[in-house]
Specification:
Elements: H1 23-35, H2 44-62
Length: 64
């Protein structure tokens, strides 16, 4: 994976440093929302790990 996942999700062209979330963080949060099961066992650690793996795979594909 290139460094694409660490670039800003909402880049700003202002002269100050951007302190927002990265693309990787944004994708992981979106995936977590999509794959979450309201009637599941509530294991958020497993869900969060799966979301990060899926977000990384998405970034890898987008970098091609």
């Amino acid at each position: 994976m290139k460094d694409n996942g660490n670039s800003p999700a909402f880049p700003s062209h202002q002269p100050f440093n951007y302190l927002g979330i990265t693309k990787r963080e944004l994708f992981a949060m979106a995936v977590m929302n999509i794959i979450s099961d309201p009637e599941g066992d509530g294991n958020v650690i497993t869900l969060a790990r799966a979301a990060v793996v899926i977000a990384d795979a998405l970034l890898d594909e987008l970098a091609k």
